[in-house]
Amino acid sequence: MQMEFSSPATYCRTTYLSPTNHNSLNLPTAHCVCVSNTSDRGFMSYQGCLEHFDPRSCQIYSKSKTITNHVHIGGYFNLNIFKANDGAALFELLSLLTSTNSSSRTTTVSLVPQFDASNAFKIPKRILEKVDYLILSESEYTKITPSLRAHRPPYVVVTKGERGATCCACDSPAAPIDKIIDVTGAGDAFCAGFLFKRILHQQPIAESMHFANATAAVCCETVSASAPLDEDRIIAKLKIEPRWVVFDWDRTLSVLEMGEFDISSNNKKVIVKRVFGSAERFTNLLDMLNSLKEANVKLAILSFNSSHLIKKCLRIVMHDAELFTHVYGFEDVPSIGQFLQAPQPKSITINNNFPPSSTEKNMLFVDDNIKNIDDVRNHTTHCTVLHVTSCGMTLDNFVEVKNWI
Questions:
Q1: Lowest CB count within 10 Å: 48, 183, 359, 390, which one?
Q2: Strands 297-302, 243-247: parallel, antiparallel or unpaired by DSSP?
Q3: In 24-124, where do the E strands start and end?
Q4: 119 φψ region: left (φ > 0), alpha (ψ -120 to 50), beta (else)
Q5: Angle at 328 between CA 202 and CA 313, to 5 degrees
């Protein structure tokens, strides 16, 4: 991870790279000032020389004239010439570097769009067709979705803050953070960690995201976005294996069965009584969930009900609507059966999305259905199971879960 060369110029001379990103204009350096508090942040940017940064000046070849094996574009929406004329100049550069006319494509491309101050959030189809890895935040992903309907790159990596990241139906939990000092640059740190593992070391997507989350976590514990990160601290994060509690929804967290839900009302008191039984039970439920979160235990819901319905209910009644890192419903898991299709067994979803610990059982699975309990008990190696009554979790059950910590 440490630089082996004293300067970028030394690196270029040693590796025979010849970047020609220069011109005769005397241009000021670009600046970006981050103004942040505990709940939000904003950026004030001065583009300076970036107004004139042209991708056609990036002619990068090796000594043997072999085309480079990876190209990364950061801050696409902040580079005006890159975006101009439907991305014409960038398309020209990528067409040269990726050699799409050759029978075997050797160059991969990653792109981080970042925030679009114009609020257009549009990436041309022909640019997306050149991109292998699109890496962006959850909010950016939502706004860029219309562009992805025209073409979706093979790997779309979406970062979700304290809920980790996802790519190709693979979820990677966030690494634990001892104390948040400064989140500025965490997204860039994630991207660097991901590409370091995926491109340089040819690691699988899941392992690359795992390393990227650890890198981002160390960045959040470090003052300044440009401070070098301690590699030993990143490695230490990788060794901390997260603990999970995975809850069923129907007649477990809620007191209702599938088909009994009516959440047409947006009144919190009505929903609390209807879905969770009583205000007292709901208060005890929140106490249990907050105790788990304070102990750095990650929470998930795995249900055969609709994840859309569950998320809507949670948004109405909970101040922290993202208390659960993952919510899986029947829309989110494959179905089995040729004629009468049903969601796949819960043990399969657990094994695919919640990796086992190398040292101990790191997951508690809570469900009212004995078939689900037996399935998870018999087909996972890292789960402890808790079978609750079919009337929803009781106060004793809440205590049992807290004691599991």
A1: 359
A2: parallel
A3: 31-36, 41-46, 70-74, 108-112
A4: left
A5: 140
